Fold this sequence. Notes:
By secondary structure, chain A is an alpha/beta fold.
Amino acid sequence: MSQREKSQRKNAFYAQSGGVTSVINATACGVIETARNHSNKIANVYAGRNGIIGALTEDLIDTGKESDEAIAALRHTPSGAFGSCRYKLKSLEENRAEYERLIEVFKAHDIGYFFYNGGGDSADTCHKISQLSEKMGFPMQAIHIPKTVDNDLPITDNCPGFGSVAKYIAISTREASYDVLSMARTSTKVFVIEVMGRHAGWIAAAGGLAADEENDIPVVILFPEIEFNQERFLAKVKDCVESYGYCTVVVSEGAKWPDGKFLAEQDTRDSFGHAQLGGAAPVVANIIKDAHGYKYHWAVADYLQRSARHIASKTDVEQAYALGKAAVEMALAGDNAIMLTIVRLSDDPYAWEIGKTDLVDVANVEKMMPAEYISEDGFGITDACRRYLIPLIEGEDYPPYERGMPKYVRLKNIGVVKKLKTEFKI
Amino acid sequence: MSQREKSQRKNAFYAQSGGVTSVINATACGVIETARNHSNKIANVYAGRNGIIGALTEDLIDTGKESDEAIAALRHTPSGAFGSCRYKLKSLEENRAEYERLIEVFKAHDIGYFFYNGGGDSADTCHKISQLSEKMGFPMQAIHIPKTVDNDLPITDNCPGFGSVAKYIAISTREASYDVLSMARTSTKVFVIEVMGRHAGWIAAAGGLAADEENDIPVVILFPEIEFNQERFLAKVKDCVESYGYCTVVVSEGAKWPDGKFLAEQDTRDSFGHAQLGGAAPVVANIIKDAHGYKYHWAVADYLQRSARHIASKTDVEQAYALGKAAVEMALAGDNAIMLTIVRLSDDPYAWEIGKTDLVDVANVEKMMPAEYISEDGFGITDACRRYLIPLIEGEDYPPYERGMPKYVRLKNIGVVKKLKTEFKI
């Protein structure tokens, strides 16, 4: 490479935002491997330590210090390898200093590409950075790469991270249902599993996949989209137990009472008067016990579901990687202020391609479960929902194992030498 | 086969008892496939529908009606394919009628071999049946095949079912820890996972495998064997968060306060005054929050852990199958009133063989975690414990998948025509 070519290269910035997933590192892998393949254009990829906070505090990670093997291993490693954060930038009007600081840091480190891997909030940040950098005379190409287990971003067919959670919940619900069926004669008759999804019921819907033509399992789903009707719910559970001998309930953490309060927000206190922050699962289990007296068990999957790389969906891993790769390619082709999307071409066999959409169309839009995906009684999923979900959980992509345990990678995460004299307080 | 040979054949009875596991069907598979290979001695295997209740009520399942493919698929199907039950037979003095009924049913169906697949209680039942059948002039060979996720049976190196739960908990704890590490800068600092094991801390100990030389994860374990010391626990958690930025807590459902009460038995009430049956995980999370203010997440794995066939330990599956096979072979060789055992020959590489022990030595002995397996501070596991545990989780044994979901088998479970005129009330 000539000196001239070298001097024209820019660095890229990559950061992970919000709740992590079992495949967000596959996207990081796609970004970094593709950037390495274009080293004539991209000098290095700097990652934000703990997401955008790393950019604000000039705490950048030099991914160039990691071996090719370590970067390749990101593809099968859950969590956010560079750290993520829950830190929402205020509006431009409220805190212009934050945005200016970001651009100051990017300028100091000669960053020409901004890849932000996150959900709705980060799409908004990405958009503002693109606009402001232009105004400040240091134009950067800002590309948002979708990621969220909640699957609630608009326009894209789905969000990387969701397919693997959906697979985990579908499998776990099926496995636990087999278990309960075995025990129901003398013991547990109702099993309640609580799943993530505070606003949208996509993950809860995946529990419905536990049942199919060969697995006649009575699954009752409580969606955040459907107001909880205790009477109808109890009748449904009773009906299942009387017909099948048992019942499996999948409750979304976002399920709500008619007054809008979360089921999980029961006003419970322990013997010392401390508020007890329980989950929705024990609340639902107790409601059933009180009404019908059925013996129950309940589980709260919590982080287990979104970090379960051991049973990730192959489709999901492939899409997560492909989006990272495409982000770099599109940036080099001149794209800016876009979010990448998955475009579904057909359900069965599943065919998809990478698309893009303007960031202005993404910000502040949440994609809920459409009404036609929820069965008429409100407790199940429709065939249309199955056609949508099944491709997303297809395929297994097992990590390598050593002595019984998955081999996940921990990066060295060596910092880039700071260039600015100023500190920035978070 | 001559008529004479045919008439000398006996039927075998097989039943599953107590909480099911992800590999108890692998034992059933071993029993039935091996019996089929000895059809000159064993005419058919009848399974108890819902365990011993099926024998008491003469509700037997004719496994001969299942195809070889269906029986082979049991090897990768979690749960109890014939149904299990929680039903403890009373002592001979208290309810001799139950035992006599069992022998009456076995006699009516020409059963010469009694294979009972369960934990401590079923070992006791097995023993009594062997004794009584002899006294009643219809001697049966009673063989107990160990099974329990709790791993608390004596003499045997381990109990089938445990290795797979251990693997699931070790992996889930590692995966969730990676997740928390990613989030700890601005969000969750403490993750609490509750695991099974009401009396013994074997499953909790498996959480300690999340950490190893390459995975420096701060795991704090609360064992049932160690009295909960709130002050020391809080200091330990604080220490982890200050050194590592986060902390992972594995709490056994059997963890207890100094007064002997389970942590899970907090006297919590909801706003209507109903007792709230929570888990230990939310209690522990709240204790930490109250003292240190750390943001937390918690999970309760419950049935997910013991039904997680998708990530079963290969060692566990092989041992479960081998025990089923050996039970039939030993019965044919004349053994009676024994429990089969796993005998460990070496740790690394792990070598084992099948052994046997008199049932009299098994009954009413619970194997707790030995003191040398628990670290000095009471919150972790020792190297000796690792050497014991690692071989049990080694190897993966993935089930087949179709459209993203594991293909588990549901048997036809066709009943054997009843021969007795009497009913038996449970």
